[in-house]
Amino acid sequence: MDQLLALDNEANLATRDRFIHDLSAHKQSGLAWVKSHIREINEWVDNDGVALLRGLNIVSTNQFSSILEAIFGEPLSQYVYRSSPRTALRNNVYTTTEYHADQVILQHNENAYSNCWPMRMGFFCVVPAKTGGNTPLADSREVYRKLPHALRDKFENLGVMYVRNYGDIDLPWQEVFQTQSKEEVEAYCWKNDIIFEWKSDNHLQTKQIRPAVATHPQTKEKVWFNQAHLFHCSSIDNQMPESMRESIGLDRLPRNAYFGDGTEISAEDIATINEVYESVTFAYQWQRNDIMLLDNMLYTHGREAYTGTRKVLVGMAKAAY
Predict the structure, then answer these.
(1) In what residue span(s) does the TauD/TfdA-like domain sit (predicted)?
(2) Closest C-alpha to 168, from 255, 54, 268
(3) How far apart, in whole angstroms, are the C-alpha atoms of residue 311 and residue 130?
(4) Residue-averaged pLDDT of the chain
(5) Does pTM surpass 0.90?
(6) Among 96, 108, 206, 278, which residue has the fewest nearby CB atoms (within 10 Å)?
(7) Across 11-25, 101-115, 120-134, 196-210, least confident range
(8) Structure confidence by residue, pLDDT tens digits, 18-62
């Protein structure tokens, strides 16, 4: 099975060579070339959902942010209602998720757990890892089509409830909401249909019910668009000892996911979802100065474990609701 899966992924990768745009022959600065080819670049992303710009001359983080703003046609978005640790740089450019190098980050559409997400994302490889560290991709339309219909229909009918507990183990609410004010947190929750409860003076719990499936606004195709498999308690099995989970209690885990009616999602269902993701996932080997542009609804992204130093930055824009 693993051998067949590997062969299938190799075939998938071969058919996606069109996503790579080798621009190394252009000697002008990356920003200058981009400004003269904005329409062409956006057509690549509109048509394919992915565009890997390779060989551009980029000399700074500021130049990367200017490139993305030129392509997206607007300033980059601030990353609020966070789910992972990052470092903010200038002009709303961020490091990618700062989990330890030995951890794999599963496939996901950015902010699919929220009622507001970026339609466009741009990644910039400053330093490729010594081994691994690539950013795998998966077509959200293929995930939707390949899931067992009974499971897919159940998620589509019920949606997903995301439950988060802040501060004890996971990110503190101050970092997630980018404020020190409880009043501002509560205002954000009211505005964004997030149920909140202060369990103690500094312990916040939130619940938010979101669809599991979305329709892309341009292509009108259905996409699998949720993070149930990332939030589900089974995803932390390798990160938290069973004894610790039992002592904390299910209701106080850093995060968990349920069906939208509050019923439990089985670990077997999550395993099935992860298997489908694995069957359609592919990756390109990062090279220094690569810029990868994504339609965040059409394609998921993740991260391989890696060795050595790795620095990949990200910027987001074009908010959707």
Answers:
(1) 36-316
(2) 255
(3) 11
(4) 91
(5) yes
(6) 278
(7) 11-25
(8) 899 999 887 678 999 999 999 999 999 999 999 999 999 998 999
**Both tokens of residue 102?**
């030995």
Gap between the Cα atoms of 56 and 34, Å rounded:
9
List the Cα angle 226/85/53 in 5-degree steps. Answer: 70
Mean pLDDT of 89-99: 93
* Secondary-structure class of domain 142-274 per CATH: alpha beta
CB burial of residue 86 (10 Å; 0-12, 13-18, 19+): middle
Position 298, amino acid: L
Domain spanning 2-136+283-320: CATH 3.60.130.10: yes
Q: What confidence score (pLDDT) does residue 4 get?
A: 42
pLDDT in tens, 219-241: 999 999 999 999 999 886 555 55
The H or E element spanning position 69 is helix 61-72
- The answer to whether 2-136+283-320 and 142-274 have equal CATH topology is yes
Distance of alpha carbon 208 from alpha carbon 188, whole angstroms: 12
Q: 170 in helix, strand or coil? A: coil
Flag whether pLDDT at 14 surpasses 80. Answer: no
> What is the widest separation between alpha-carbon atoms in the chain?
60
Q: Which residue has the tokens 């619940």?
A: 207
- Spatial distance between the Cα atoms of 214 and 234, rounded to a whole number of angstroms: 24
One-letter identity of residue 109: N
Tokens of 198: 């202060």
Both tokens of 280, joined, read 């359609």
- Rounded CA gap, 189 and 179, in Å? 13
Bridge partners of 299, per DSSP, are 139
3-state class of 106 per DSSP?
strand
Decide: helix, strand or coil at residue 155.
Answer: helix
Domain boundaries in the chain? 2-136+283-320, 142-274
DSSP states along 86-122: --B-GGG-EEPP---TTPPEEEE-TTTTSS-EEEEEE
Using DSSP bridges, classify how beta strands 50-54 and 20-22 pair: parallel, antiparallel or unpaired: parallel
